[in-house]
């Protein structure tokens, strides 16, 4: 990231804005006014904040960058899913996805430029990790999506932190992002409508459990045993499956909330009935939901999709262990739907 870059206005929550106003000799209530302009009126410049003095507007423009993102391209699926490719101020690119469900609009945000976790079935890891995003760059993804939805009078109802990168390796900005979008002065999205996903950064699962929030937690599991998970997800060598499950049990005891386990089905790798039985025994007794995900085709990866019949047979086995199981409804299948695909395609062209 460029060292001379100004912080983003979206980096600050209400207490931060109050501190900033105090430091600059402004009354505290100006903090709420600025957040109203940012999140309720959704302005694109400080000059539009008409109930602020000219001096304050100039000071804000000198101190902060308001627009962290520019739209490089967007793709819209026949099912209404929109995938944005955003350019950052340092010329990196990230992806954000808007999904329309029968219960409302959800936005999937990215927390890092690239990813270092190295999951073998994921396009996000192609090229490795470039840098972490700031809280403001994550907030701006939701704000840009919301501005696009304003044209059709739709509202972002839920947010999933499941895009490119590992949120728990960018922990503080991710937590700040949640605070801002959850704030009544921010986007006022309820904690129960926010879910964060981790590949298994065990220390921060404990830390997240202790936050005392109602934010959902999803664990990218993808295998029912140590050896298979390590072959698919290198992080499992650093944080073994047994340690991950201990952290999951701690989360369940501490929060009383249900856990979600994401399980990408990869043809011939982890989708056999023996894997389903092993997974059922592993998770039996947990207050959890298993979300089965037909793996997306990635040109750079040599994986095949599990057949529809096999997916239902896999689910039937998990059902026999009394484990709540869903099959993810595919969206954006006719566009570059998988995490990192659109960015990878863009990077080849530049």
From TrEMBL:
Q: Which InterPro entries match?
A: Aldolase_TIM, Methyltransferase_A, RlmN_N, RNA_MTrfase_RlmN, rRNA_lsu_MTrfase_RlmN/Cfr, rSAM, rSAM_sf
Q: Which PROSITE patterns match?
A: RADICAL_SAM
Named from the GO MF annotations, one term is: rRNA (adenine(2503)-C2-)-methyltransferase activity
> What's any GO biological process attached to this entry?
tRNA methylation
Cofactor binding notes: Binds 1 [4Fe-4S] cluster. The cluster is coordinated with 3 cysteines and an exchangeable S-adenosyl-L-methionine.
User: What is this enzyme's catalytic activity, as reactions?
Assistant: adenosine(37) in tRNA + 2 reduced [2Fe-2S]-[ferredoxin] + 2 S-adenosyl-L-methionine = 2-methyladenosine(37) in tRNA + 5'-deoxyadenosine + L-methionine + 2 oxidized [2Fe-2S]-[ferredoxin] + S-adenosyl-L-homocysteine; adenosine(2503) in 23S rRNA + 2 reduced [2Fe-2S]-[ferredoxin] + 2 S-adenosyl-L-methionine = 2-methyladenosine(2503) in 23S rRNA + 5'-deoxyadenosine + L-methionine + 2 oxidized [2Fe-2S]-[ferredoxin] + S-adenosyl-L-homocysteine
Q: What is its main location?
A: cytoplasm
Q: Which PANTHER family match?
A: 23S RRNA METHYLTRANSFERASE (PTHR30544), RADICAL SAM CORE DOMAIN-CONTAINING PROTEIN (PTHR30544:SF5)
Extra remark beyond the main annotation:
Reaction proceeds by a ping-pong mechanism involving intermediate methylation of a conserved cysteine residue.
Q: What function does this protein fulfil?
A: Specifically methylates position 2 of adenine 2503 in 23S rRNA and position 2 of adenine 37 in tRNAs.
Know the name of this protein? Answer: Probable dual-specificity RNA methyltransferase RlmN
Organism in which the protein naturally occurs:
Baia soyae
Encoding gene, per UniProt annotation:
rlmN
């Amino acid at each position: 990231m460029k060292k001379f870059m100004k912080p983003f206005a979206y980096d600050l929550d209400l207490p931060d804005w109050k501190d900033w106003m105090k430091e600059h000799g402004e009354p505290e209530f100006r903090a709420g006014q600025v957040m109203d302009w940012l999140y309720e009126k959704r302005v694109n410049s400080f000059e539009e904040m008409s109930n602020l003095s000219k001096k304050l507007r100039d000071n804000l423009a000198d101190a902060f960058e308001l627009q962290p993102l520019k739209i490089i391209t967007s793709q819209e699926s026949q099912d209404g899913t929109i995938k944005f490719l955003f350019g950052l101020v340092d010329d990196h690119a990230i992806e954000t996805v808007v999904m329309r469900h029968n219960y409302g609009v959800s936005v999937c945000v990215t927390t890092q430029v690239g990813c270092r976790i190295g999951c073998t079935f994921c396009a996000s890891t192609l090229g490795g990790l470039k840098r972490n995003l700031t809280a403001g760059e994550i907030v701006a993804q939701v704000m840009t999506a919301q501005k696009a939805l304003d044209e059709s009078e739709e509202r972002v109802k839920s947010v999933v932190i499941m895009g490119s990168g590992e949120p728990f390796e960018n922990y503080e900005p991710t937590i700040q992002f949640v605070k801002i979008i959850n704030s009544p002065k921010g986007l006022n999205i309820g904690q129960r409508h926010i879910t964060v996903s981790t590949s298994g950064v065990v220390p921060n699962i404990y830390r997240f459990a202790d936050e005392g929030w109602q934010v959902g937690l999803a664990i990218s599991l993808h295998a029912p045993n140590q050896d298979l998970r390590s072959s698919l997800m290198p992080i499992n060598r650093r944080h073994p499956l047994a340690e991950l499950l201990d952290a999951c049990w701690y989360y369940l005891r501490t929060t009383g909330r249900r856990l979600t386990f994401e399980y990408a089905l990869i043809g011939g790798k982890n989708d056999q009935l023996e894997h389903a039985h092993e997974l059922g025994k592993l998770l039996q007794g947990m207050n959890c939901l298993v979300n089965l995900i037909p793996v997306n085709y990635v040109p750079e990866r040599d994986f095949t999709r599990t057949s529809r019949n096999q997916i239902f047979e896999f689910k039937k086995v998990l059902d026999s262990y009394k484990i709540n199981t869903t099959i993810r409804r595919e969206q954006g299948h006719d566009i570059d739907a998988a995490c990192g695909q659109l960015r990878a395609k863009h990077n080849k062209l530049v």
